[in-house]
Amino acid sequence: MAPRKIIIDTDPGQDDAVAILLALASPEEIEVIGITSVAGNVPLALTTKNALMICELAGKADVPVHAGCDRPMGRELVTAEYVHGATGMDGPNLPDPTMPLQEQHGVDFIIDTLRSNPPGAITLCPLGPLTNIATALQKAPDIAERIQQIVLMGGAYFEVGNVTPAAEFNIYVDPQAAEIVFKSGVDIVVMPLDVTHKALVTKERNAAFRAIGNAAGTAVAQMTDFFERFDREKYGSPGAPLHDPCVTAYLIRPDLFSGRHVNVEIETSSELTMGMTVADWWGVTDRSPNATFMGSVDADGFFALLTERLARL
Questions:
Q1: Would residue 243 show up in a list of annotated catalytic residues for this protein?
Q2: 3-state class of 199 per DSSP?
Q3: Phi-psi category of 185—alpha, beta or left, where left has phi over 0 and alpha has psi -120 to 50?
Q4: Which of 105, 197, 243, 261 is catalytic?
């Protein structure tokens, strides 16, 4: 089979970085035709710089990177330096990027790419707030039927929230955008906290990254060393969850994941539960299913894949 063409939409973020590295290390299954940055974990200038640095770390300076939206559609930007550090990618000491940033806005790149490829040829992989994707859908409604699939990291059901008692960070940052995406009619696959909190970087798994011995493996080990302190303290877990790499791992090995096709609605009016992903896991409403909401992952298989692919870079 030909590799799946994807656009990665991202706000790096250490776990975003690992997701991008996994994609760039897997050309048999995935062709990264572009990366668009969005404000989220840190402001846009930093997420854009980080995306460029990740491409260079992977030795893939030919991947076009486009800067996208610098703020959510209807709210002030909320960032997460308290998790990811001041740069958004604290841990390794990576050199400043030298590859060029593309001039075209990320939203226009998404629209033009979908329009210039056959319908169903492009999968969108959002790893951060959904601002760019929703803005593209609003600006060019015709692209919805051209998208093969949207595979995203965001939301939670059983794990509730990680930024408020009810909401996961990516959806909370721009719930209005999330609502547009989930109502778009596009085939959506969701990697919520219910899955990502089962993909923990234990000391043994991080040692395996470091033992790879290349620049990418060392950088990933340093990244997870840095940001696991937050999750250890907050959840008492044995390591940090690798949220975003679940998206790219699904494209390579969908058999590692299981979930249900259910209705998912986004709360956009209540400040108490703003950004909540209301997943009808038990089918108690008559609302039509609109997303495959994943519930579990084979963590050992996931980390074996990740370690094997990082060793290629």
A1: yes
A2: coil
A3: left
A4: 243
